[in-house]
Amino acid sequence: MSLNPSGSSREPIFNLPTSIFLSVLVLVGIHALRLLLSEETDFQLLIDWAVIPARWSVEYGGVQSDEVLSALQQGSSEQAISPLHALAQYILAQNEGRPWTALSYAFLHGSWAHVIINSIWLAAFGTPVARRCGAGRFLLLCAAAAIGGAILYAFMNPLQILPMIGASAAVSGLMAAASWFIFAPVDWLPEGRPTQPHERPREPLLEMLRNRQVLVFLGFWFAANYIFAFVQPIGITDASIAWEAHIGGFLVGLVLFPLIDPIPARRGGLTP
């Protein structure tokens, strides 16, 4: 059956949902505006809006400032100790936990490469999720994954004083959400066309874990996180990779998506 008898209609090159387009525009726009700031103003912006685990640990976790300073002496070279001590003393002297940074850090990026890569992955995996769930649930999923990534990162690095930024945790949550349905079997709709990925019922958990495409996708994702976090190929990354935040965001997306998915799961198997 021909879906386009006249052959006159064409798909646009960039066919992004409005919520995805605006999200990418916000990330790119914020990074561009930061370039107009002085170094001092941009530094203060990072301190105020990035995730700094040691700040949370001192404010909410019962950790003493001296413990943070002692940890810096043990884990840093002599040349790095002095500036790190100064940074730690400056941050911890504010006596503020700044809980909103669990979300705000996702809007900040360390370089153009960082923001562009995250924007590409956001468009790739956010598009089917946004088309399936709508803008509201898409944004909810992004926010929850970002917060989950920040919490896991802080939990595993409680004395870290360096800022952590980037939308990678939110993107990881979208990847996990999309893995529920983008590799699901194709169905045929009454009008005679195959279902698009965002239209397919998500697979039950056991069936998803038996799907070779899902396993290859997840294996590649975890392997890439390992390589960039621990091997750190020269010339590919310009900063340390917060793999803990990626894992946290991914787990949140994996667990949360079935709860907000507007399409019922395919019958059979188990769902979380």
Automatic annotation (TrEMBL):
Pfam families recorded: Rhomboid (PF01694)
GO biological process, one term: proteolysis
Transmembrane segments: 12-33, 102-126, 138-155, 161-183, 214-235, 241-260
Family matches, as InterPro entries: Peptidase_S54_rhomboid_dom, Rhomboid-like_sf, Rhomboid_protease_S54
Superkingdom of origin organism: Bacteria
Membrane topology qualifier: Multi-pass membrane protein
Gene3D superfamilies for this protein: Rhomboid-like
Protein localization: Membrane
Keywords: Hydrolase, Membrane, Protease, Transmembrane, Transmembrane helix
Protein family per UniProt: Belongs to the peptidase S54 family.
Protein name, as recorded: Rhomboid family intramembrane serine protease
Organism ancestry: Bacteria, Pseudomonadati, Pseudomonadota, Alphaproteobacteria, Hyphomicrobiales
